[in-house]
Specification:
- The protein is of the alpha+beta class.
- The chain has a domain of 82 residues: 3-layer Sandwich (Rieske Iron-sulfur Protein), CATH 2.102.10.10.
- The strands form 3 sheets. It has a 4-stranded antiparallel beta sheet with strand order 2-3-4-9, with no helix packed on it.
- A hairpin with a 6-residue loop joins strand 3 and strand 4.
- The longest helix has 23 residues.
- The radius of gyration is 34 Å and the shape is elongated.
Length: 175
């Protein structure tokens, strides 16, 4: 291995580190070398970009407290719903169990049965708290719902089909 001595002082570049780079590597190297200092426009552009991001974040956060727009409607406070609460004028049953709010469509005659922790009707139809029909009962369709700042909202203009029903026989817990 042959080592080469550093360049004589008159052949050294005016700036940058001096060193040895083999000839083959120097032909294959793809490096960006900045040969002049950056201008003042670069720090100004960075500050302006940062201010734009901060302004966009502030505008986003200011608008996040507003209630959802139409067709969403407020149906009450989540703390007041409990396990289940019917809303007769909308023919909806709100179920606030399992850490999620659900709004079942066409379900105002359905009630919550505390001993079985299920939804039931007087005629013996049974659902679990996700709206899945049990014992051959068809599952419940659901309105999209959301909770914002402790208030419950639902979209009565749309419904989502419920989960597949279960055919396993089940006895009502409340009668």
């Amino acid at each position: 291995m042959v080592s080469q001595s550093p360049q004589p002082p008159d052949e050294r570049p005016e700036f940058g580190p001096s060193g040895y780079l083999p000839e083959r590597a120097s032909k294959r190297a793809r490096k960006i070398v900045l040969r002049a200092p950056l201008g003042l426009q670069w720090p100004i552009a960075a500050v302006v970009s940062g201010l734009v991001v901060v302004a966009a974040g502030v505008l986003f956060l200011r608008g996040s407290d507003a209630p959802p727009p139409e067709p969403w409607i407020a149906v009450g406070e989540v703390a007041d719903i409990g396990a289940a609460q019917p809303i007769d004028e909308l023919d909806v049953l709100l179920v606030g169990a399992g850490g999620r709010l659900r709004a079942f469509a066409e379900a105002s005659e359905i009630g919550y049965c505390e001993p079985s922790n299920r939804l039931e009707t007087a005629d013996g139809r049974v659902w679990n708290l996700t709206g899945r029909g049990l014992g051959g009962t068809p599952s419940l369709a659901e309105h999209p719902s959301l909770v914002q700042d402790g208030n419950a909202y639902l979209d009565p203009s749309r419904t989502v089909p419920g989960p597949p029903a279960s055919d396993e026989p089940v006895e009502p817990g409340c009668g």
